[in-house]
């Protein structure tokens, strides 16, 4: 059995040199990552990248081939630690014959609380009717049950494997606000997703997994810094000839009468300085920049393999 990694208390989730092989397939290769108290870590990657395998190893559902995992200074298989963890899995399988209320009460008993009114509040927040039978629920409502059981005991660690799949945008927003509230209370959150927009507003750091390897890890702040922005500047008059020549960080300049379209790498400061003496009526940002950065890492990887 894998022993829990010995980590300082502030690092609540740790993966040290994790490798997991299924026969000839290496699903995760020498992975290292840590999530601190009060931090949301977005684990990103396309289908098959190894996110679920990492999470299953962290929770003790599968044994690492090599390396160690640790949760709250021990291992998630230990009951006292498991009861401080909240988990939403990619596949929600629940006992179809039970009523929502009975299932949630059973989870609460396992963990020594919380009392029903707390659970009812969470159900209300997610518009989940606890009197319904699990088998009668839609996929989205079954996911809500999984979310309520994961959050109801105010866990110190949240491990969320694509938790909002199948939820409408309003509910996604509600789930994200529950996640933020736990982070603000000092919990560590590992949040896996295959798209960046889902986590970019809440994650403090992200790691990008590709074919089992962590190809990039950074803070959202730094990613934004290196991201390219496509801007459209609308001037009151025609753009003066040469105005946007040789501006630091600016490329792909296209001028059409009073409109200039540009791509900016990093800071827009030099561009703003250059146009300062001219009347700019409107600046439009086509802000798909971070997603571009994200896909850049996939593309680089594909090039390596061709
Ligand atoms: N029990 C298993 N036996 C054999 N292969 C497995 C097993 N579990 C996962 N794999 C393989 O390991 C690789 C990583 O899968 P994993 O489910 O971890 O990816 P993922 O990033 O979570 O993808 P998704 O977003 O599709 O869930 C895949 O190639 C998958 O087919």
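Sequence proposed for the structure above (306 residues):
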């Amino acid at each position: 059995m894998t022993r829990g990694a010995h980590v300082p208390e502030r690092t609540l989730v740790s993966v040290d040199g994790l490798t997991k092989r299924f026969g000839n397939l290496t699903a995760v290769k020498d992975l290292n990552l840590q999530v601190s108290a009060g931090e949301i870590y977005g684990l990103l990657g396309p289908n098959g990248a190894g996110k679920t395998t990492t999470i299953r190893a962290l929770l003790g559902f599968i044994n690492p081939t090599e390396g160690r995992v640790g949760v709250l200074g021990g291992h998630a298989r230990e009951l006292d630690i498991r009861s401080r963890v909240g988990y939403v899995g990619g596949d929600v399988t629940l006992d179809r014959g039970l009523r929502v209320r009975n299932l949630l009460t059973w989870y609460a008993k396992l963990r020594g609380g919380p009392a029903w009114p707390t659970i009812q509040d969470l159900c209300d927040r997610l518009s989940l009717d606890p009197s319904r039978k699990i088998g009668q629920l839609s996929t989205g409502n079954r996911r809500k049950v999984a979310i309520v059981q994961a959050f109801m005991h105010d866990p110190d660690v949240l491990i969320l494997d694509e938790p909002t799949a199948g939820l409408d945008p309003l509910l996604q927003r509600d789930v994200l606000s529950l996640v933020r509230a736990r982070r603000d209370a000092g919990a560590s959150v590992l949040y896996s997703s295959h798209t960046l927009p889902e986590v970019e507003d809440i994650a403090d750091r992200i790691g990008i997994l590709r074919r089992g390897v962590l190809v990039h890890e950074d803070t959202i702040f730094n990613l934004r810094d290196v991201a390219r922005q496509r801007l459209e500047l609308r001037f009151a008059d025609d753009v003066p000839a040469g105005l946007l020549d040789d501006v630091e960080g600016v490329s792909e300049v296209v001028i059409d009468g009073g409109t200039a379209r540009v791509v900016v790498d990093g800071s827009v400061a030099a561009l703003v300085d250059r146009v300062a003496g001219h009347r700019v009526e409107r600046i439009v940002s086509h802000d798909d920049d971070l997603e571009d950065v994200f896909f850049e890492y996939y593309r680089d990887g594909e090039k390596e393999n061709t």
